[in-house]
Amino acid sequence: LRSYPLKMSFFAGIPEAPPIEVFHMNNLYMQDTSANKVNLTIGAYRTEEGKPWVLPVVHNAEVAIANDTTLNHEYLPVLGLEAFSKAATALVLGDDSPAIAEGRAFGIQSLSGTGSLRLGAEFLHTHCKMDTVLVSNPTWGNHKLVFKTAGFKEVRDYAYWDAINRRVDIEGLVRDLEAAPARAVVILHGCAHNPTGMDPTQEQWKQICEVIKKKNLFTFFDIAYQGFASGDADADAWAIRYFVSQGVECVVAQSFAKNFGLYNERIGNLTVVVNDKATIPGIKSQASLCVRANWSNPPAHGARIVHKILTTPELRKEWQGCIMTMSSRIKEMRAALRGHLEAQGTPGTWAHITQQIGLFSYTGLTPDQCDLLIQKHKVYLLRDGRINLCGLNTNNVEYVAKAIDDIVRGAKL
C-alpha cells in the first residue's frame, strides 16, 4: 500500500476557549468528594432535599398529552405552535392588553430564552440595521455573546449595580442611557435581575422608560423568571406592561425553563409589540427566514405542555400554586441566610439578601473570597459572588453562613 504524507489539519491552530464559568463550577462541584460540599452555582430550582422538581401540574399535563391520540409528531410551523405563542404573549402582556386586542402584538416560539434573544438580535441587526446594544453591568453571562454572534458591532455596558450601597444605581443607569446613540438596543431584565437579584422600583422603571422614549432607544426585555420571582406572574410583568402602556415598541424574550421547570425542553417565546400592525406581515415573513436558517422549526412537547396549562383553568390554578411554592422556598432561604449572618455578627451589611428577588443573590463577596470559600469550605459559587438560593436548605444554610463569616473575617487556607 502506498503511504501518503500527512497534511496539515483543517482544524489546526484553533485555540481552546475558556470554560463557561457556571457549567465549569457545577462540574467541579460534581467531582468534589467532600461530604460537606454545597452547590450554589447553576441557575435551577432545587427542593429542600436538593433535588430537581418536576412540577406536578407539568407531569399531569404530560400524561394527558401522551394519552391524546389525536396528536402526532409532524413538524410545527416555522414560527411555532401558534396557540402556545398566543398564550405566552398573553401571559407577559396581560389577558386584557390593548396591544393584543388591537392586533399589535404576537409571539414566535423559540428555543427557550437564549433562542428568543438570538432570534430577536439577528432580526434587529439584519432588518432594522441596529448595531449597538447596551447591557447592564453586570448582566447574565450570555447576553454579550448572543448579540456579538448575531452581528452587533458594539456592545456597551450601562451602570446597574451600586456595589457600595448594594442597590440599583439608578443615577448611573439613566446617565448611561442618556449617552447612548439613537436606535441603540437596551437589554432590560423584566424581573429578578440576573445576577444581582435587585430590580428597579416602579418609580425607577418609569424614569428608565422616559429616557428610552426621549433618546429613541429600542427596548429588548429578557424575562426568564415570570411568576417564579414573586409567585405572582402579573406582578413580575409589571415593568413590561408599563412600557407597552406608554406606547413603547419592544420585543420580549420569554423562557419557561424556571417557571415551569422545563429546563431541557427549551421552550421559549419572542413576543413582539409594534405601534403599527401593518408592519406585522413583513416582520413575520423575515423572522420566518431567520428561524429557517437557525432551527427551521421548534420542538412541540414543551409548547404543548405550557399551552395546555395556561389555557386550562384548573391546571393554571395548580401552576400558580406551584410557582408560589417555589418562590416561597427561595424567600425562606433568603431570610434564613441573612438571619444566620446577622446573628453571628458577620462584618458588613446583609439586608440586601432579603431586598433582592428571584433565584439569585449578589452577595458582595470578592473573587478572592469566593475562591477561598470554594477551596476551604467547598461552597461552590460564581466568582462574582452570585449564589443560587435554591442550593440552600435547612440542613446547610447555617454551615454556609458560618463559611461566609469565616472568609469575610479574613480566614486563610
From TrEMBL:
In eukaryotes there are cytoplasmic, mitochondrial and chloroplastic isozymes. Homodimer. Belongs to the class-I pyridoxal-phosphate-dependent aminotransferase family. The lineage of its organism: Eukaryota, Metazoa, Ecdysozoa, Nematoda, Chromadorea. It catalyses: L-cysteine + 2-oxoglutarate = 2-oxo-3-sulfanylpropanoate + L-glutamate; (2S)-2-aminobutanoate + 2-oxoglutarate = 2-oxobutanoate + L-glutamate; L-aspartate + 2-oxoglutarate = oxaloacetate + L-glutamate; 3-sulfino-L-alanine + 2-oxoglutarate = 3-sulfinopyruvate + L-glutamate. Keywords: Aminotransferase, Cytoplasm, Pyridoxal phosphate, Transferase. One of its GO terms (cellular component) is cytosol. The keyword Hydrolase does not apply. Residues 36-404 form the Aminotransferase class I/classII large domain. One of its GO terms (biological process) is aspartate biosynthetic process. This is Aspartate aminotransferase. It is found in: Cytoplasm. It is an enzyme of class 2 (transferase). It holds the Pfam family Aminotran_1_2. Its main location: cytoplasm. Its EC number is 2.6.1.1. Its cofactor is pyridoxal 5'-phosphate. It comes from Pristionchus fissidentatus. The keyword Nucleotidyltransferase does not apply. One of its GO terms (molecular function) is pyridoxal phosphate binding.
